[in-house]
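Researcher: Go.
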Amino acid sequence: MKRKFLLLLVLLAAIQPLKADEGMWLPALISQRIADMQAKGFKLTAEDVYSINQASLKDAIVLFGGGCTGEIVSNEGLLLTNHHCGYSYIQRHSSVEHDYLKDGFWAMSRKEELPNRGLTVSFLERMEDVTDAVLKGYKPSMTEEERADLVRRNSEEIRKKAVEGGKGLRADVEALYYGNQYFLFVYKIYRDVRLVGAPPSSIGKFGGETDNWMWPRHTGDFSIFRIYAGKDNEPADYSEDNVPYRPKKFFTISRAGVKEGDFTFVYGCPGSTKEYVTSDEVQYVGEVSDPQKIALRTLRLDIQKKYMSQSQAVRIQYSSKYASVANAWKKWQGESKGIAKMKTVAAKKDYEKRFRAWAKGTRYDGLLDKLEALYARRNPYYLAYEYYTETARTIELLTFANAVRTNLRNPDAKADAAATFFKDYYQPIDEEIFVAVLDAFNKNMTDDFKPAYFKEKLAAYGSLEAWRDDLFARSVFTDREKVLALTEADADRVAKDPATELYDAFYRWYYDTLRPVINETNQQINLAYRDYMQGQMEFEKDKVFYPDANLTLRVAYGHVEGYSPSDATYFYPVSTLKGIIEKDNPDIFDYNIPQTLRDIYAEGGHDDQPVCFLATNHTSGGNSGSPVINADGNLIGINFDRVWEGTMSDIVFDPDVCRNISIDIRYLLFNIDKIGHASYLFDEMRFAD
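Model: Structure:
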């Protein structure tokens, strides 16, 4: 059955034409799609895209940090990614005296480039199908627990062997198609990555949360870093003796621009999609989970925004935190609306009705009923878990208390945790969030889904305000000096601190009450999906199936195209500097551009300066910072977002409205030259035209 499934998968991918521009394809298997890509205008070969025998485009792409993509654009390790991907590192270097968020940052020499502790970039060395090796020794008579244990042991052996004799290597074995296929991914990880340049946030985040996930977009969402290595060009910890990394491959930059219909492809690391789930999952996401989480995050965002607007220091402290909370908050709004607009739940149910009829008398008979029952059992517990993560887990003092307790035996780690926490902590925000989120938890969770400790304490205090006042007044974790004075001998005192007690009460409730049911049902759901995936392949023999995204390197291809989100509305696919000037408003923070940009525009001749463009590439979270490449394989932009109406593409792709948004590479170059006055960087880049 396994062999039959995989053979069917390969044959379908190879012979079927691509429907619309949907799909996130494994580079190692790109030869199965290259004919379709070339038919749509692509001029390179499969070996140019991915090769382990020669330098290829994959060698110019990195996983940036833990959730973005970046690309190399010089022989000296110069790296481009999004401003929002580098935002937390820019924020860490910022202060009231050196507000790099507000003013931007430009290193005018290598010595001025800023190191970033903890930041890594990962190059994919190779990927390969290891399904046979992972399932070596499997027998149909095995229980699921025995199979899982076999997969773990075999995967660990594969990982160990893959990194033997290598420097800075990491190997992962990833399950695709819900465990019907397994791939090995081997990475080389570089640990010395320095900030080279970033525009002011009024350019890099122009439009702020108002424009986030929207079109037309006029955001210069880029930042520039450089990878450093030891003198042997291998990964090394930060050192002044390190030298710029010499890549196997770097992108040539095209300044020719884009027009509607041009071929594009995005080469990056999409984070997570769920294209093959049932109506039960879609209904939970669109009608329950997203709306509830949106409401909870609105509470936090309103509180943060209020205090940030009153103080520059607080704005710097909470800019990265606010952006992190707001990004998913806005995305979920578009996702739930898109699911409803496309009638995705009804469409899934119709599909499932036909699948049930087809499955009668086969081994897939009753599979959807089983999934429906599993979701019915899991969802109340999972909603309680999501409430836990969006309420108690968001109170900063509680998570800090746990971090300090964990590091009591390690004074240096404890000191580092305290320095990081207090640098970006404003207690009035945390106190107000404490009341807001726990009030929402209390009102929206039934009594059987509340920790006993929470109910007892709330009853004893009489109000959340009284509880808050006492907790923040008595907790040692609000005082930096007291935290630094704690030692291992203070373990009992730390355990009895009111912040630690509340953290523990919620965690124990989650661990003892929610987690067992969630883990048990999720394991059964994933097992059922393994069968359902095979069933869908057999049921829909004419459909092209691509694996869900999992933050591994993928290729998505399409073309530049506008879209019509509603009746009598059409959006063109390119935005310009003229649109920035039209939005410019010194009285609104999100639209207050630098005076320098106003002056440049006033000089004339810049109305048509391109800023961003749309394309039909299938992208997801993790694709932020991905290179957008033209038919010749040259860099034309950097992906940074999707349109709001198409954010449901993680679950269902609509070719009419699913569009990815990219900064035009020419606007990035414009900013380096005109805003950063750092055109010396052009000397190490290579241009196609």
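Model: The mean pLDDT is 95.
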